[in-house]
Amino acid sequence: MDWGADRATLLKLYRTLVRSKHVLRALDPIHHQGLRIDLGAFRTSPIKSLYAEAGEPSLGHRRIKLASNYVLKLKSLRRNPCHEVVFEAPLSDFSADSKSEPNFVARTFEHIKNAKINLNTIDNLHVQCPPPWEKHTDNVNISLTKQKKKKIPMKL
Its Gene Ontology molecular function terms (predicted)? Predict the structure, then answer.
């Protein structure tokens, strides 16, 4: 195509608009209002008390937890294509330059490091070869289908 923005411009727009914390923070008031409704709390109730009362983390903390869980699970799955991107690329590839914020991988590794989780202690998950959903055949006995119903005894 000869029209429209080039790839670099589109990626900058995506990173700025879609992945920005500002857009993600727009969901926080909705989350807070939902907690207020669920708990029957006043509009003026402090947000931290809503989280404590509901036993629910903030969306930011939930995002961090989900991202960390994903990276930790990915560490054990060497056959996953994302494993190579996340763990075999030099970490310097994920570092932020002075103009932008660290990306997903760099932020998640920082949270894992702050939680004092040693990635070297995570063992590889050995999946059966081939995986059970591939090349699986069921043995079904259909010998009774060849018989007429009248010839099959009522009690076997």
Answer: RNA-directed DNA polymerase activity
